[in-house]
């Protein structure tokens, strides 16, 4: 049987705020951005693990304090600077690329997939 966790004052406040359409409309894209940064940082952590580089060694390679690197790679809400991200990527042997997020039509997606597989 699942136990219910009592709602905190913040939980109740947040639930009330989310009923406000203006607040909810502003919150959703902001939350998406925060979640995207978190997912990106988890990907960096996966790349670090795969490469076999310790957090301490990565800190040394990037000129960062070991404790700061540990926090950056393990916190639930990281907020790194672009310079820090670029330094980490370079140290791990990765780069950064822009990906357009505009939805594509299904026909265009199918055409690109077919063209890509024809080139492979």
What would you note in describing this structure?
It is a single chain. This protein has helices at residues 9-18, 21-51, 55-62, 66-74, 82-92, 106-119. By secondary structure, the protein is mainly alpha-helical. Helix 3 (55-62) crosses helix 4.
Give the averaged pLDDT, no decimals.
Answer: 86
| β-sheet strand percentage | under 5%
* CATH C-level: Mainly Alpha
Fraction of residues in helix = 55-70%
Give, in order, the helices and strands.
Answer: HHHHHH
Largest sheet: none
Counted by DSSP, the helix tally is: 6
End-to-end separation: 52 Å
Count of discrete domains: 1
What is the C-alpha radius of gyration, as a whole number of Å? 20 Å
**Structural shape:** flat
Task: Please give the structural blueprint.
Elements: H1 9-18, H2 21-51, H3 55-62, H4 66-74, H5 82-92, H6 106-119
Helix pairs in contact: 3-4
Short description:
The protein has 120 residues and is mainly α. The chain has helices at residues 9-18, 21-51, 55-62, 66-74, 82-92, 106-119. The protein has one domain (9-95): lambda repressor-like DNA-binding domains (434 Repressor (Amino-terminal Domain)).
């Amino acid at each position: 049987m699942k136990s219910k966790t009592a709602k905190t004052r913040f939980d109740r406040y947040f639930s009330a705020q989310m009923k406000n359409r203006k607040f909810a409309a502003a919150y959703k894209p902001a939350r998406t951005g925060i979640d995207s940064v978190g997912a990106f940082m988890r990907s960096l952590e996966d790349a670090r693990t795969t490469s076999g580089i310790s957090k301490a060694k990565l800190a040394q390679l990037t000129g960062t304090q070991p404790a700061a690197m540990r926090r950056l790679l393990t916190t639930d809400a990281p907020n790194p600077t672009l310079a820090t991200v670029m330094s980490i990527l370079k140290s791990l042997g990765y780069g950064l690329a822009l990906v357009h997020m505009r939805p594509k039509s299904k026909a265009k997606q199918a055409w690109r997939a077919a063209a890509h597989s024809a080139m492979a």
